Amino acid sequence: MPEKNAKPWFLYLIECIDGSIYTGITTDVKARYAVHCAGKGARYTRARPPVELLAWQMQPDRAAAARAEYRVKQLSPQQKRQLARNLAMQIQLSPAIQLLHETRHAVLSTHSTQLPGFPFGTAVPLVLDERQQPLLLISALAEHTKNLLADSRASLAVVEAGKDNVQDAARITLVGRCEPCEASTALVERYLRYQPEAAQYLQLDFMFFRLVPERARFIGGIGRMGWIDGADWQALPGFTLAEEQQLMTEIEPLLPTQVRMLGIDAFGIDIDDAGQRCRRQFAQANSFDEARKTLTGLFSAN
Fold first, then answer.
1. What does the pLDDT look like over 79-109, one tens digit per residue?
2. How many CB atoms are closer than 10 A to CB 114?
3. Which positions carry the signal peptide feature in this UniProt record (predicted)?
């Protein structure tokens, strides 16, 4: 594993004035882009000035960054542009997903049946399914359940905890259809790892609902905001529940005694460390095999 305080390296892609795409590596993307813009970077960008920093991707070390740079340079211009679009989407989505995983509760807003035309907001526990979609367990008698059964259109708002000034806090509002869903045994097990106290509610009249985002508004702080389309959300890389369980089975013997694994997804892992829930985000979205390698290296060193 890299040293704890070692700086990560980044692969980056720049569009040049002639429409070509320059690929490079650095430890500071914004500073390096400024050097290119000043005409003091690579010979290529001195002859073809940059017009836009398209995207970047974190790498664990210089060697990995160099390998990634070599692979990208073998791509066609069209393939480079598609890669840049995919990376830009991940740059935008990754902090939003991180926020959702770090937050235990959200505010669900539904269309009131008692007061037609008015929104009805209520606090609910928040757990994501294997596709990064909110999974809610709510009573059949609850007012918001009645609202959702009459009109599935809803929104879910989440705010970063621990900020005195909410304007400085990251926040996201997901807008979409929130409908009842049949939860498989594996999905119920995933939910209960995050919310073990909910086991008692499964013996009562509680129902699972899943919110499928159609659009999301993410605000990372003052001046950092944007919309995320539902199509991009659905295109996120992910694991099946069976793949998640396989990874957990392989990794659990390596965990320290005080650590309990809650969930694994393409963007990171959620753990309970001596009663404290925390999120460890991957440097980039991982495939199943990449996640296995990352997790083995992470915990085998403990």
1. 999 888 877 766 678 889 999 999 999 999 9
2. 9
3. none
Tell how far CA 1 is from the center of its chain.
23
- In this structure, the answer to whether residues 159 and 279 fall within a common structural domain is no
Per-residue pLDDT tens for 154-191? Answer: 999 999 988 888 888 899 999 999 999 999 999 999 99
User: Looking at the predicted structure, is the pLDDT value of residue 222 above 70?
Assistant: no
Closest CA to 195 of 282, 137, 240: 137
Say yes or no to pLDDT of 19 above 50.
yes
Q: How many other C-beta atoms can be found within 10 angstroms of the C-beta atom of residue 258?
A: 11
Residue 149 in tokens: 């059964």
**The tokens 């069976």 sit on which residue?**
242
pLDDT of residue 228: 86
Long-range contacts of 120-128 (CB under 8 A, 24+ apart): 120/144, 120/147, 125/195, 125/198, 126/100, 126/156, 126/158, 127/190, 127/191, 127/194, 127/195, 128/100, 128/101, 128/263, 128/265
Report DSSP state, residue 156: E
Q: Which residues pair with 156 in a beta bridge?
A: 108, 174
Burial class (CB in 10 A: 0-12, 13-18, 19+), 218: buried
How many helices (DSSP H) and strands (DSSP E) are in the chain? 9, 14
What's 180's domain CATH number?
2.30.110.10
pLDDT at res. 2:
40
Inside any domain, residue 79: no
pTM of the model: 0.73
Closest residue by Cα to residue 182 from 216, 151, 221, 210: 210
Q: Cα–Cα distance between 288 and 286 in angstroms, integer? A: 6
CA 94 to chain centre: 4
Average pLDDT over residues 26-42: 92
